[in-house]
# Entry
Amino acid sequence: MRITEGDGTWTVTAAEYVLHVRVPELVAVLADPDGRIWSRLSLLASVDRADAPDDSYGRPRVTLRTEPLDAAAGPRVAEFDVAMASPAWEAKSVLFRCFEDRVEVRARVRGSGPLGEVRLLGGRATLPDGACGVFRSSIEFTTLFVPTPAEPVRAERPADSAASLGIVGDACAGRLNAVFSPPPLCLVFQRPGGGVLSAGLAGDVRDLRFPALRYDPLDGGFLLVADYEGRTRAGGVFETPRVVLRRAAGPWQALQRHREDVAPARDPGERPAWWREPIFCGWGAQCAAAPIPGQPTSHPYHLRDLGPAVVPAGVTTAFEMSRRDRYDGWLARLARHGVVPGTVVVDDRWQLAYGTGEPDGSRWPGLREWIAERHAAGQRVLLWWKAWDPAGLPADECVTDPAGTPVAADPGSPAYRDRLAGIVRRLLGPDGLDADGFKIDFTQRAPSGRALRRPGAPPGAPWGIALLHLMLATIHRAAKSAKPGALVVTHAPHPGFGDVSDMIRLNDILERDPAGAEVPAVDQLAFRHAVVRACLPDHLIDTDQWPIADRAQWRAYVEAQARLGVPALYYAERLDRSGEALTGDDLRLVARTWESYRANPL
# Structure
């Protein structure tokens, strides 16, 4: 690394980039070694307190530190400390730390107060020349690669399109971006001519105390934004997680390097052979047998035939199709055609209440005995679990609205964590149901909002992504305690969640691209598979299968599943969206692909 100083400027020439720090303009121009510019990075940041905005002002004071200084080879690391005054903090700096292969950016403040919205690579300021307002880093790239499924379906989008990576979402407009929750917090900037620049947020997962990282573009500039929602209190010195900027050959290598920045290499430990066995999940069959309340009967995201979406009173719903007799019938039909899953997922909803995990005896009489029958047949049973749902829980173990109504279970409450661990032990333990693990869903329904209350959580309890990790860690530890070979399946491919997941599911299939064209299921799930492989290469993958458009797409995906992970079958009699019946030939296709997969499992 070589550093050249000028009049109010420094130029860092490293193996992988050139960074030209221009103090009067408060920018650091980041370019390839050949001089092609990626961005004029803003030297500003805003770290708002929930009770006071952070607007930088005054003349910047820039300090350069190097370590170690080698007269022959130059410094190994160079750090620019850009300090400006702030009305919210005793002191504030933006730190640009330069290595041979990357630049890391973070903000540091000294003082105390609840954290609000944090903006990196830009922020609010009043500059010495009188310019004021929000300043951004420049967009000198053309497209943005976003490693999470969203609707419309697209891995790449124009560089001036917003993006969110987090754990808050559902099927409503603008919220279908947390199918992976959380995905890797890494965006990849692309331009014609090859090569990419990644911007990944790296740090201990326990420090990710916000629900989402947002890419916020406007008029040729962008910010990275994380809202701590007043839930984390700075005391003394607080540093944000660091944004790691590095070049890569392509988006998949960028995600692999991001994994290395976030989490150390981890030995996945012993994986029982049955974890690789093909899966039958009953949810698709349930939906084919009865409608979902509040959704079109054909497809929850379908836009062409909405019709009357509310199920009339007295009509049986898909949830009520989670029944012992129904599952027995579906498994028997599959077996008659040579389709015998090694794992069976009992899906939504076998519980009386989501939050308590008590089986509904009217639909699942003798669930423990049924699980024992599956075991006797050489099969394992996973129970579907709806994360965050407060149904049946006391309010002081929940996040509530201002009126005290529970909106989510709160893993920040020690009492809830104790309850959750007890539920897990009861469901998996030999004296309980003796099930074999969980398929965890709805992690994207995390609580978010400054008006929410936490009556049972002590001061300083985690929030946001860190809170979800605490919830999954509680489940994972309790599961392994009750049954060491238990399997925990999540849809959280963030590299920092590798220690609380054994298998990553690819999750629900979406539908259309920005032009309105249907995107084949195989293409969607192959993209998701590649994201998981880049971020958690040692984890098994549950390929999922719901909801699928028609029989042709279903057959194509059945044939593709074995190369994407553990095959998963959701249907037994017919498809829910098209209503097409599955014939004996269709089920024999499943049997053949499973036989081939079992001969050479991943």
Remarks:
- The two ends are 43 Å apart (CA to CA).
